[in-house]
Amino acid sequence: MNAVPHEDVDAKRCGRLPCAAMLRVQGEGRRDMRFLAMILCVLGVGVAALAAEPVTLTFIAGSGYIVSQGDFKVAVDGITSLETPAATQALMAAAQPPFDVNVILVTHSHSDHFDASLVARNMTANPAAFLVGPADVVGAVRTLAPALDSTRFQVAHPGFYAPQTVEAAGLSIDVFSFPLPGPENVGYRFRVGGLVFVDPGDLDFDTAPSDFARTGLSQAGAGREATDVLILPYFLFNAEYRWVLPSCPARLYVPTHAQLGDLALACETARSVTDRVLCFAASLETKTIELMPPP
Question: Cα(204)–Cα(213) distance, rounded to whole angstroms?
Answer without folding.
Answer: 14
